[in-house]
């Protein structure tokens, strides 16, 4: 995995942001987002814009609470789409300056939401992009389970949990890691993954948010 140099992470953020902007046709903004129930694509973009602003200002709580997230979306009520994207552009410029000073931008948030938006628009893509690899690496490195577990992805594996005891193995992809670690998979989907043994001891430790209330097919 590439060392997480802040400027490198910034380039991944920049490219991910551009891919999202390229998806934002006139009809895209009001599409509902299955991965984020009750949100439209516009809400997701407003959230990402506010996250960028708050990160640049040093005021972001990680992860933000539900109330903070709602306030982030409300921040852009009454703003037209051009104004939202202009605000995101200004915040992204600040993130670039911070990266040049040694502080990486909030890549994980934007990568997850790119694929939320793609799911809403029926436009899958970029699943093997370097940004997915970087974000999934971060998510796997902070995974912690009460029993030994090994996650094998397409270009390596990660071990977590105690050193002693029988190891539970999972074969998956970096894209799927991105999705199940951030609550985009249901409990049933988690249990149905490619396990080497009964995953019951680790299922409730796999996700940072969620899990999804219903199966999410992407």
TrEMBL record:
User: What's the protein called, per UniProt?
Assistant: Mycothiol-dependent maleylpyruvate isomerase metal-binding domain-containing protein
Q: Which InterPro entries match?
A: DinB/YfiT-like, MDMPI_metal-binding
Alphabetically, the GO molecular function entries are: metal ion binding
Q: Name one matching Pfam family.
A: MDMPI_N
Q: Which top-level group of life is the source organism from?
A: Bacteria
SUPFAM superfamilies tied to this protein: DinB/YfiT-like putative metalloenzymes
To which species is this protein native?
Mycobacterium dioxanotrophicus
Domain Mycothiol-dependent maleylpyruvate isomerase metal-binding: residue ranges: 22-99
């Amino acid at each position: 995995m590439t060392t997480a140099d802040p400027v490198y992470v910034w380039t991944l953020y920049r490219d991910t942001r551009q891919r999202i902007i390229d998806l934002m046709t006139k009809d895209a903004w009001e599409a509902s987002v299955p991965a984020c129930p009750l949100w439209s694509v516009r809400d997701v973009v407003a959230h990402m814009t506010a996250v960028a602003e708050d990160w640049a200002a040093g005021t972001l709580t990680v992860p933000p609470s539900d109330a903070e997230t709602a306030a982030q979306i409300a921040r852009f009520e009454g703003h037209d789409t051009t104004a939202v994207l202009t605000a995101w552009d200004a915040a992204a410029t600040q993130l670039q300056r911070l990266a040049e000073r040694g502080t990486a931008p909030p890549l994980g948030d934007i990568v997850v939401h790119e694929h939320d938006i793609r799911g809403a628009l029926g436009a899958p893509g970029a699943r093997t992009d370097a940004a997915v690899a970087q974000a999934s690496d971060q998510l796997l490195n902070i995974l912690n389970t009460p029993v030994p577990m090994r996650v094998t992805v397409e270009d390596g594996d990660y071990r977590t949990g105690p050193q002693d005891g029988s190891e539970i193995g999972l074969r998956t992809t970096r894209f799927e890691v991105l999705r199940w670690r951030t609550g985009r998979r249901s409990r049933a989907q988690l249990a149905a993954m490619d396990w080497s043994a009964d995953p019951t001891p680790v299922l409730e430790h796999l996700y940072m948010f969620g899990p999804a209330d219903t199966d999410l097919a992407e």
